[in-house]
Amino acid sequence: MSFFDKIFGGKEEAPERKSFWKKIESSEDLAKAIEASYHHKIAIFKHSTRCFISSTVLKNFEREIDSLDHKPDLYYLDLLEHRLISNKIAEDLGIRHESPQLIIIEDGKVVDSSSHEDISISQVI
């Protein structure tokens, strides 16, 4: 980022996500995630990259995951970049949109959903 971008608010680059995340960036990615839920529990983390609270919750959640020996099947959605996919999740799965939000899915159905300080790795394992 250039000096002028820092002063005048140029576009910041998004930080790289941890390697355990599978990104959802299309309807096809979402369909694959839902399909995987028929084989094992999955989690989708919906994150607003412009929200300090969402960033804090995400960092805390990633710290919890880092401490695990076995990583669960985790999907990451940047809801600002992929608003239509975020809306599709809410509509198709019948849940209210929140951010940050952790959605736990088994057999194609939401079995748990939490937001903000209620998000915990214990929901996934």
Automatic annotation (TrEMBL):
Q: Which domain of life is it from?
A: Bacteria
Protein name stated in the entry: Bacillithiol system protein YtxJ
Gene3D superfamilies attached here?
Glutaredoxin
